[in-house]
Amino acid sequence: MKTVLMVAEKPSLAQSIAKILSKGSCSSRKGLNGACSVHEYMGTFSGQSVRFKMTSVCGHVMSLDFIGKYNNWDKVDPAELFTKAPTEKKEANPKLNMVKFLQVEGKGCDYVVLWLDCDKEGENICFEVLDAIEPVMNRPYGSERTVYRAKFSSITDTDIWAAMNKLGEPNRNEALSVDARQELDLRIGCAFTRFQTKYFQGKYGNLDSSLISFGPCQTPTLGFCVERHDKIQSFKPETYWVIQAKVFKGKESPLTLDWDRVRVFDREVGQMFVNMTKTSREAKVESVSKKEKAKQRPLALNTVEMLRVASSSLGMGPQHTMQIAERLYTQGYISYPRTETNHYHDNFDLKGTLRQQANNPFWAQEVKALLSEGLNRPRKGSDAGDHPPITPMRAASEGELGSDGWRLYEYIVRHFIATVSQDCKYLQTTISFTIASEGFSCSGKTLISPGFTEVMPWLGIPLEEAMPVCERGDVFTVEEIKLVERQTSPPDYLTEADLITLMEKHGIGTDASIPVHINNISQRNYVTVENGRKLKPTNLGIVLVHGYYKTDAELVLPTIRGAVEKQLNLIAQGKANYQQVLQHTLDIFKRKFHYFFDTIASMDELMEVTFSPIAATGKPLSRCGKCHRFMKYIQAKPSRLHCAGCDETYSLPQNGAIKLYKELRCPLDEFELVLWTSGSRGKSYPLCPYCFSNPPFRDMKKGMGCNECTHPSCQHSLNSLGIGQCVECEGGVLVLDPTSGPKWKMACNRCNVMVHFFEHAHRVQVAQESCEACEASLVAVDFNKTRSPLPDGETQHSGCVFCDPVFQDLVELKHATMRHPSMTRGGGARRGGRGRGRGRREKKPKDKMAALAAYFV
DNA sequence: GCAAGGTC
């Protein structure tokens, strides 16, 4: 019997489609990667009985990157990234082992049906899947077709069956347009990012230049925020005048009227109108209009709308919101949260969905009323053909979801109920007056029926004082007429919700990537999120955007993405050649890059007035080994040491504290050592600022401190202070922290294992000799007579930390579980040496000869 | 260490 493999874009879709096509009778099992499932059932395919295997990938199988050697920032000129640097496809998520998984499932299959999402990305993934499985599938007989593409516009029985009965083939051009987009984004983004990062790196003391990124989506996103900032900065308040009139009738409280001319910008003109109006003490009613108006119920919920509301009303950032929504989805509380569609399909079970909510005390009353009176038809939205709108899938209580989970779920439920509720109806009453010959009016709203605002009370019509009952010709008495001076006010910073709207409008990012871009610009310190989730650009963000404005405004304008997309669409439609479009666009950006490169000084001028040069920042800490003058320690991120004499900057470990280490020097380069500490109770080790960036020995890498240094004789090196192999990790060595007394400890130089020992000893030293049983270096300990825990009042003892019975109770492992065989209390300790010969790496000091050899190269 | 796009 032949086998048909079917592949969807995500596990949840594979499941729903399999359920539809097998009429609920498939058997399911997990695939080898644990993430994807395989659903199997019997059926017919082009007239023959076959076995169906429905499975999925998890988004893209592959992602584009430069080949390895072009990822070295120090050796590659960013300009080479435009053409010279070759790219390759790598597995997008190596942990998922997707290619292997597809090959295991595809082996021996005769046909494949591609059920990837029906957009360009999906079309591209079709070919990624084919590249993986075609080599392992059965060979077709003759010219029989084996590859099919299902095109569906929604996940409903009818649509899925219609797609199955009318299979087409994957669209190569659409896939190619995505290949082109990937290559453009990669080459352009990385070239600009690397160049500007390296240019500004280490130049300014108070600038975090660890990464200054550029991208066709993130940069225009930042641009929007800075554009608003500029408007606020350049805003000049204008003074204007309005006439305030208060009138009353009988004993009713006075009404405040709005002036028909709204406002004037000339005081004298305003005064003239006031004088004119004041000639009358009567306000005559010209007309009374009453109009029934409606506030529309919301459209069904899609992703960007959910993100907007979550940010503006729930105070939850887009990235966080998506994390919560994904959790609610995987736990079965809501439908798939990434969708552009805000329209319910005709056969969507609205009533069933509503019924599930009938017992929740928060909205049971409204739900029951709707169920008995009948649901309103949801408004017509747009169907992007991806997924149904975001909808609650089952009832939940506050306790089972957690705080933010519940708040988001509650909103989704209320929004859903609102979509099937009536519009809110109210009466708008407007009374027009004339005082002398000037026109005034006042208006108010009264509720007719709340409709959907019953479940969304925050959108309800606010209760107002009732409008007076009157008719044309009535006369009110003027209580007060006065000229009021006011000022125009500047706009506020963009809110996240505003930004999402702008991005959507200009086609910057997608529903899935919008949160990522917003997150990026705030994580990288280009904007900060202020009260009310307003986005305020930082000095860095402002300088970057202004810098682009000065050199090449297109780099930051939102139109650039659209222009490139237009080119790409030509590939997708088969109207342009893939290679030609790619070359053409790369050429344009290559020229932009070179122009940017040549004029970077004009961006730097802006940097100079905003940030202080590195030489003027920081405080003197340790001496340079070359010029022997003090280097300055710059604490701001990324923390580093700068030698003004040599104009060199030396990087330091991040996330910790640095201080001078007793003015001791590195024997190799005479730089004064500094002591790095992770925190008050954390680990610490000395490091040489020069060796840290320039590893002195062949077996060392960048970023190593003295606790990993293989110097054969330096008293601070691993060779002198290393005690034994780590009890937890592979390859780590426990190194004595000579600064830790009287609470002595040794810490692993790879992982976070820490061993406390010999508290109150006044000296702890690593001896030359090794333990016969486990090869760890012996340790000599000196205690004060009064506080010695040693037997028989002894004050000195020397032995193996792991094996010596006297040391047993003086050693305590922290932050990790014990795995060192001879450290298990009462177990192998006395027998010793059980840990040997099991293929574990020997402790480093054994390699003293190798280290020596490297030293003398 | 970099982009943007899928998704877990």
Automatic annotation (TrEMBL):
Region (Disordered): 375-398, 818-846
GO molecular-function terms, A-Z: DNA binding; DNA topoisomerase type I (single strand cut, ATP-independent) activity
Domain Toprim: from-to ranges: 3-153
Organism: Salvelinus namaycush
PROSITE patterns recorded: TOPO_IA_1, TOPO_IA_2, TOPRIM
Catalytic activity of the protein: ATP-independent breakage of single-stranded DNA, followed by passage and rejoining
EC number: 5.6.2.1
The protein's role, per its UniProt record: Introduces a single-strand break via transesterification at a target site in duplex DNA. Releases the supercoiling and torsional tension of DNA introduced during the DNA replication and transcription by transiently cleaving and rejoining one strand of the DNA duplex. The scissile phosphodiester is attacked by the catalytic tyrosine of the enzyme, resulting in the formation of a DNA-(5'-phosphotyrosyl)-enzyme intermediate and the expulsion of a 3'-OH DNA strand.
Entries under Pfam families matching the protein: Topoisom_bac, Toprim, Zn_ribbon_TOP3B
Full protein name: DNA topoisomerase
Gene3D superfamilies, A to Z: 3.40.50.140, Topoisomerase I, domain 2, Topoisomerase I, domain 3, Topoisomerase I, domain 4
Gene that encodes the chain: top3b
Root EC class: isomerase
Keyword Ribosomal protein: no
